[in-house]
Amino acid sequence: MTSVVRPDGPAKLTGRATYAADTQVPDVVYAALTPATVPFGQLASVDMTAALAAPGVLAVYDELPPMPPMPSPMLGHSMIPLQGKQIHYDGQPVAMVLAETLEQAQYAAGLVTATYTDVRRPVLFGQGEEVVPAGGHTFHPTDESVGDFDAEVKLADHVVTATYTTADRHHSAIEPAATIAWWEDDQLTLHTSTQAAGLAQMAAAMAFEVARENVRIVCPFVGGGFGSKGYVWPHVFLAAGAAKVSGRAVKLVMTRAQMFSLSGHQPATSQTVTLGATAAGKLTAIRHHGVNAAARVDQYTEFTTHASTWLYDSPAIDVRTRIQEVDRPQPTPMRAPHEGPGVFALESAMDELAHRLGIDPVELRLRNQPSVDPLTGQPFSARSLVECLQQGAERFGWADRKPEMRDGDDLIGWGMSVSTMNTFRNTSSARLRVQSDGHVVVETSMQEIGTGLPGLVQLAAAEILGCDPGDVEVRHGDTALPPHFGTVGSISAGALGAAVQDAATAVMEKLQASPGRSLADLVGASGLEFVESEGHWAPDEKSSGYSIRTYGAVFAEVRVDADLGLVRVPRIVAVYSAGRIINRLAARSQMTGGIIWGYGQALLEKSVLEPNLGRFLSRNLAGYVVPVNADIQDIDVSFIDEEDRIASPIGAKGIGELGATGVSAAIANAIFHATGRRIRDLPIRIHDLL
Ligand code: MOS
């Protein structure tokens, strides 16, 4: 079987699935935050008199007991609010109110006033100095090269060079971040919206200096994360800290506006790409230098240049990543981090080169395919990009592309791009139990963030057990269950799938399974009530010698109204090479969602920063525009039949982020084809085309 309908669907549709803020806790008190209104400065005073006198208010805190700074930004950035006087960003909490009702807390939070010293105008992106990032975000080298770029580019027949920019973007998940926290002696329980329960557990244990086992995180379902719930954010520390000081259960739910400052964003980037090539369209030099806006704490780094080291064969490749430290809240990974903004620049430049050379854009990519990783010389674990390009072109009808295509007032353009993601891998585990009635239970701390992981677990288990996937019940989302690193970085299909199969294999060995006998029979024969085993997976040493990535080819048709500049995208065709696809239905849904996400990056999404206040202005979904159904027309997704047993024993790699790469370049390239306008700054707006 290669598809199941998501087993979590009915619970979600009927409201039975519990999200963090849904949890009913007796005697809970409500917290609300007062934000700083300056982008930089020192907190001089906080006046809480009026707030303390307001109805229902139990306490107002402008400081919580000291917590040690977190050793990694994943565990919560090194600047936890209510821990000092330094203001790093507009919106940083300067006070927290606890009250009997939510309305009382919010009202009183608005009565708290603060004064500041050393306030200055914010340093903005484009004004700061470029520096080499050195903080906890540098999980790749910042500078990588092979060959002699300067020598090669001088010899090239053709050189294109251009600077591309991407905008500040916010994740805008339906569910705002939320935490309910309470202490029983030195035991802390947190119902918190997280993509990685284990990280939240570790962070809370460190912050409150208790053992990890003393912290329990519960979070079965996440109402959209897209990266905003991967790292641990201030609300976790604030809710748990207030619960400790007050002795009450504390509920803290971010407002939509607070989601624009307290749960990360994808920072604006500026990237310069230079490509040198022979007249025959063979790349000889690739340079990709990128810089992103970073907060002053922790130096968040967007590795926009990373994919330029593995996509194309070239004797010289030179990539460099820099940041600018500016006054703003902390950025974080956002679907798709790094390659999402980076592939836009590289694949726009490839289109510019194809146009310059008079070579078809698909053909230019085909002429530059490497046989091994161009930077490291490592073999690829699995790479069917050529097939993606060929099949995608076929499905789209690319051969019929004409230099000019028009339909009435509509200028029609066809553009394409490669998609790619590095395959990030991490650890996972699961416990699998077969009961005497044949019912199977799989338990893991994993969060279901909307990607359909419970269905994947069913299929992975059923394949080994030889049972119906519907017989497999999946319990998830609690650190009391076997740890899964996180529903982040597109790791889960490969990691959790492998861990579940490891557990299932061990159970089948215990059962001494022989073909033709049902699970119920086998357990019955063992004389036990159930048979269970725990399975694990971690990336092995041998696989680290491979270049493990995912790929795709995206083809877009745009229609640009010649008079109005309005862009429509009537169809997108995408073909992916991403290892084994375990649940075709859920995978198709993931890629469709990724493409819609890429559509947003291309045409809609931009968080405008007010330059005097250093404040994101559009802090709601009216001002921050994301795609809606009316924007979306035909999306045709397919996969190359492929397995990658080097990436994971189940043969799967992650796809959640892959789908969001390449789309913006395909649309921008299609707009160039339609209009002759090369727009290098995202999002592309109507006024860019008038
Ligand atoms: Mo992801 S951007 O690690 O949810």
UniProtKB/TrEMBL annotation:
The lineage of its organism: Bacteria, Bacillati, Actinomycetota, Actinomycetes, Pseudonocardiales. This is Xanthine dehydrogenase YagR molybdenum-binding subunit. Pfam families: Ald_Xan_dh_C, MoCoBD_1, MoCoBD_2. It comes from the Bacteria. It comes from Actinocrispum wychmicini. The keyword Iron does not apply. Transmembrane segments: none annotated. SUPFAM superfamilies: CO dehydrogenase molybdoprotein N-domain-like (SSF54665), Molybdenum cofactor-binding domain (SSF56003). InterPro entries: Ald_Oxase/Xan_DH_a/b, Ald_Oxase/Xan_DH_a/b_sf, Ald_Oxase/xanthine_DH-like, AldOxase/xan_DH_MoCoBD1, AldOxase/xan_DH_MoCoBD2, AldOxase/xan_DH_Mopterin-bd_sf. Residues 14-120 form the Aldehyde oxidase/xanthine dehydrogenase a/b hammerhead domain. Keywords: Molybdenum, Oxidoreductase. The keyword Oxidoreductase applies. One of its GO terms (molecular function) is oxidoreductase activity.
